[in-house]
Amino acid sequence: MLTKAFKIMGISFLGAALSFNLASAQTMKTPVEIKSNEAAVKKINETNTAYIKKPTKYSFEERLRVENYAYPLFDKKRTGKKNYTQSRFRAKIEEELSEESKITLTLQDYRFFEREPAGDASISRNDFSIYNAILEIRNFAGIDGLFAKLGRQELTLGNLRLVGNSNWSEGRVWDGMRFIYKAGAGTLNLFNFDLKRHDLTPPVQLRGLYYICDKIKDMELYALKYVDRNRVNGEIAVTARNDIDINTYGFNYTKKFNKKIEANIETAIQTGDWGPEKHRASAFHAEAKYNTLSKLNYSIIVEYNEASGDKNPIDGEHGTFNNLFPTNHTKYGYMDLAGWQNMKEIAIRNEFNIQKNLKAKLNYHIFKLQNSKDAWYRANKSVFDARRDASGASGNDIGSEIDLVLTKKIKANLEIEAGVSKFKAGDFVKKTTRAGGEIIDPAWGYIQVLKKW
Question: DSSP string of 258-278?
Fold first, then answer.
């Protein structure tokens, strides 16, 4: 800091001396000399311009959503209709500390109300929290091009299939640090984060490298390490509990052939330990998109997803792909009945403009289990309603889902969105229904208002 100050003082002194010479001896100079000196003074004054701090920036976001779920367990004799109301308010403050540093603070008020008339029960949740508290520093530790983000923050990588902010609900934030370094060949992200859970439960840890390549445009490579010290059992009951420690290696690549056609592929493999057992798993995603570039801006996307399941529930080796910390909502259907583990999915997605500021999405998904001996996993990674047939006799046909979503932009900072979805149960669902149950296909709908200012 002292060296910088002396440099600024020296430049200021030189500028003042040159200005004095111009004022006292201008008549003695030729036009060319005068122009040259004026340019020099201008350059010095520009160099000596003091940093002007930007004013504190405030921004706000308010979101209100109402949802209705009819027969979410596929059984007419069990839970009937569930109604949800969710409100989320965020206030964000950004304050520059210097020319190379900034602090961001985001406060969140999240409220969730669930009503289940059939069981005459209600659940509510009210949370006020510090959502983000980030210190950003450019040229960290004096290293040119090294950008640091320290503190509580969101972490999103690639297409959010493995690491996302889960913003459909209250969001997901991490405590730790992220370093971003821009080199000639690409951008390297290095991070080390903890995700806090219950006070009596150790936090989940996520560390990793994420590289965005410039030489091969839109190519991303990653190596992630996930550690959960909340010990788990293995498949064999006599084995002692142990930690989950998983390594995930993969890449995500998008190829744009022209203005109308593009494709995306992502694949990942996992090694490590699932409690006392070895963990070996993999996942794959591929999609192709065609945009007509017409007035409707119509696009059609054909997509295939697959993630491994456990082939043998008693062999002492864990084979179910771990979806890590994704944003699964909308990726595999809006009803959130599927995640990227033990699954196969074919999807056809349609996106188009009905009119100015009114967009529509019409999607169709077909779901199957990758391995019929493993469970059906939801978007939140939990087993759906204990649906598992270790014998594999129930098959792998989960069913299909159709989604329709409309988004209307009322103003630049105000939009309203509504959607409806219907799921048709497959043979696996029918064969794993509880004794005495009556199969019925669930439906889901929502309406949401989002305002930013």
Answer: SSSEEEEEEEEEEEEEETTEE
Amino acid identity for residue 201 in this structure: T
State pLDDT tens for residues 123-168.
778 889 999 999 999 999 999 999 999 999 999 999 999 999 999 9
123: its two tokens: 């659940």
My answer on whether 153 and 22 are in the same domain is: no
Domain check: are 145 and 8 in the same one?
Answer: no
Mark whether 87 and 12 lie in a shared domain. no
For residues 322 and 400, membership in a common domain is answered with yes
> What number is the average pLDDT over the span 427-431?
95
Q: What is the pLDDT of residue 49?
A: 64
Query: Looking at the structure, do residues 107 and 39 belong to the same domain, yes or no?
Result: no
The range of the structural domain enclosing residue 397 comes to 54-452
Q: Are 22 and 83 part of one and the same domain?
A: no
Q: Does the pLDDT at position 376 exceed 90?
A: yes
Least confident interval from 45-54, 269-278, 320-329? 45-54
Handedness of CA 369, 373, 378, 384 (dihedral sign): positive
What does the DSSP 8-state code read for residue 109?
A: E
* Residue 91: predicted pLDDT: 98
CA torsion angle for 257, 263, 264, 265 (degrees, to 10)?
-100
CA distance 105 to 95: 9
Residue 48, pLDDT score: 53
Question: Residue 375's domain is classified under what CATH number?
Answer: 2.40.160.100
Q: Domain count of the chain?
A: 2
Handedness of CA 19, 23, 26, 31 (dihedral sign): positive
Same domain, 159 and 269: yes
Tell me whether strands 146-153 and 81-98 are parallel, antiparallel or unpaired.
Answer: unpaired
Token pair in block for residue 101: 């540093």
